[in-house]
Amino acid sequence: MDTELVATPPNAAPMEAEQRWQAVVRRDAQADGEFVYAVRTTGVYCRPSCPSRAARQENVAFFESPGLAAAAGYRPCKRCKPDEISQQQRRNALVLQACQAIEHSASALSLAQLAQQAGISPHHFQRIFKAVTGLSPKGYHKAVLARRVTASLQSAPSVTEALYDAGFNSAGRFYENASALLGMSPGRYRKGGAGEHIRHAAVPCTLGWIIVAATRKGICAIEFGESAQALEDRIRARFQQAQFEPADAEFQQWIARMLRYIEQPSGVLDLPLDVQGTVFQRRVWQALQALPAGETASYSEIAERIGQPRAFRAVAHACASNVVAVAIPCHRAVRADGSLAGYRWGIARKAELLRRESKK
């Protein structure tokens, strides 16, 4: 196939044209506004979600905008009207407006208030907000509070001042949510993890160096790197005032199991974990853990498995937020066409992990 990609940025991924074609095949409304496609045999350009009869892939050209398609001599489809704002784009704009309102508000905005600003019913607003962001408005507000409180704890004179600066209207509500937001008590977070007990070890493996860190509850980090020192510095920066303990026999067994799994992956790597994330992130991570070695799933498939089929971009973000390599196997998340998407520890490592799993 010689599918053409027009006006593509120089650093665009090599498979971008194929990704766009898959969006056209799925009639993906989430892709509306990102590009349009034109059909050489008809001289018409459409939005990705156009319900018209599918064109042959070899007759399709992609453009970054309706203006570029028109400049190339194509005319807009009368059915999907790609030169006008789509319903999905309107929804995205409403959700963006709501997100900005939540972020700029000193106090929590109710669902009724947000829906009134959007000019739609609370039920409908809740549904489209969750479809676009992967979170409910309440969940998004909690994520905003988490960002605020982590910043405030580092600069405010006291924990009490930090919690009010972040937007909590009572100390009780803050302490109820503190562990989920911070992964530790606010006092310990403020002190750079003071009072936390961290066991860790950096060891070589066939994919470079790898560091494993654990609290007394379970593993809190597994990361690949190019040197033991760089990985050591990364962990100590996360827990600046934590008490670092030597690896005991139990911890050494966890490391040995992980290294064996990297070399000869099979089934699911079952290790006790102590990881923090939003409700949505945890659901994505649980779905990834349910994937045994040798299997992959696209971001869209994972979104469907957790009951939010339109939240594939949020799924990708949750994968990128994972700091526990292999045990939470985000390397098994791929693009819709099966090609490899980004991996925080390098595409080459991702490809090698999947190659080993395919030979199990």
Helices and strands, with pairings:
Blueprint (H helix, E strand, L loop, with lengths): L3 E2 L10 H11 L9 E4 L4 E3 L13 E4 L2 H6 L3 E2 L10 H18 L6 H8 L3 H12 L3 H19 L3 H8 L4 H12 L3 H5 L6 E9 L2 E7 L4 E7 L2 H11 L4 E3 L3 H15 L15 H11 L7 E2 H7 L6 H9 L12 E2 L12 H12 L2
Parallel strand pairs: 1-4, 3-5, 6-9, 10-11
Antiparallel strand pairs: 2-3, 2-4, 6-7, 7-8
Main features:
360 residues; alpha/beta; DNA Methylphosphotriester Repair Domain; 4 domains; five-stranded mixed beta sheet; 15 helices; disordered N terminus
Report on the structure:
Helix content is 46%, strand content 12%. The chain has 4 domains: 4-76, DNA Methylphosphotriester Repair Domain (3-Layer(aba) Sandwich); 87-134; 140-190; 191-360, Arc Repressor Mutant, subunit A, CATH 1.10.10. The model is unreliable at 1-15 (pLDDT under 50). Helix 3 crosses helix 5 (122-133) and helix 13 packs across helix 14 (312-320). With 360 residues, the chain is an alpha/beta fold.
Q: Note the main sheet.
A: 5 strands, mixed
Work out the strand percent: 5-15%
Given helix and strand content, the structural type is alpha/beta
CA-atom Rg in angstroms: 24 Å
The CATH topology of the largest domain turns out to be Arc Repressor Mutant, subunit A
Shape: globular
In spatial order, strands of the major sheet run: 1-4-2-3-5
Supply the CATH superfamily name of the largest domain. Answer: Winged helix-like DNA-binding domain superfamily/Winged helix DNA-binding domain
Mean pLDDT: 80
Instruction: Write the element-wise H/E pattern from the N-terminal end onward.
Output: EHEEEHEHHHHHHHEEEHEHHEHHEH
